[in-house]
Design brief:
- Helices cover 17% and strands 12% of the residues.
- By secondary structure, it is of the alpha+beta class.
- It has a single domain, classed as H/ACA ribonucleoprotein complex, subunit Nop10 (Rubrerythrin, domain 2, Single Sheet), CATH 2.20.28.
Amino acid sequence: MRFLLRKCPKDYQYTLKDQCPICKEETITAHPAKFSPDDKYMKYRLAERYNQ
């Protein structure tokens, strides 16, 4: 899983590198987390989201 698409949070450029080639900012993964129907922590995440 070396070649995942990444996105720069500063200028929203997509790249495959760990640093943005334009602004040299650290990139983040552009893919969502895996979904599991057996997620044992889902009620805690939903409670945190709606109690803010």
